[in-house]
Write a structure and sequence with these properties.
- This protein is of the alpha+beta class.
- It is built from six helices and four strands.
- It has helices at 3-9, 34-43, 53-64, 80-84, 88-101, 106-116, and strands spanning 15-20, 25-30, 65-67, 72-73.
- It has a four-stranded antiparallel beta sheet with strand order 1-2-3-4.
- A hairpin with a 4-residue loop joins strand 1 (15-20) and strand 2 (25-30).
C-alpha cells in the first residue's frame, strides 16, 4: 500500500470523553476535519479578522459532541441558540477540548512548549 493510500485509509478522528459537571453528563468529543475547521473559522470571523466565540462555540459543540453510548451526535444545527443559552463554563469546557483536538489552540500549546525548553 502506498503512503498516500495509508494516509487516506487512516482513522484519524480522535475521540475523548469529557465530563461536564454542570450537566452531570459525559460526552464524547471528536476531532473535526481540516475542511470543517476552515468553514467554522470562516463563518465565525469578525469584520476585524477576529473570531466571534458566540458563533464558534455552538458550531464546535454541534460538530464534535457525541453520545458515547449511542454513537450519535448530541446536538443538531437547530440547537445553536439553545447552546448559546447554556452555562458558559459547560460550553467552554467542551469547546476548549474540541479546539485542542482539532488544532485550533496550537498557538497556546506552542507558547507553553517554548517556555519549558
Amino acid at each position: 500500500m502506498s503512503l498516500r493510500d495509508r494516509i487516506i485509509a487512516a482513522d484519524d478522528i480522535g475521540k475523548r470523553l469529557v465530563e461536564v459537571p454542570e450537566w452531570e453528563v459525559t460526552v464524547e468529543v471528536r476531532t473535526i476535519s481540516a475542511g470543517m475547521r476552515s468553514r467554522m473559522l470562516k463563518a465565525s470571523q469578525t469584520a476585524d479578522g477576529g473570531v466571534d466565540i458566540d458563533k464558534l462555540y455552538p458550531m464546535l459543540l454541534i460538530a464534535t459532541c457525541f453520545d458515547p453510548e449511542l454513537d450519535e451526535p448530541v446536538f443538531t444545527d437547530d440547537d445553536f441558540g439553545v447552546i448559546q443559552d447554556k452555562s458558559a463554563n459547560a460550553v467552554e469546557t467542551i469547546a476548549k477540548v474540541a479546539m485542542e483536538m482539532s488544532g485550533m489552540a496550537a498557538g497556546e500549546d506552542s507558547d507553553a512548549e517554548g517556555k519549558d525548553s
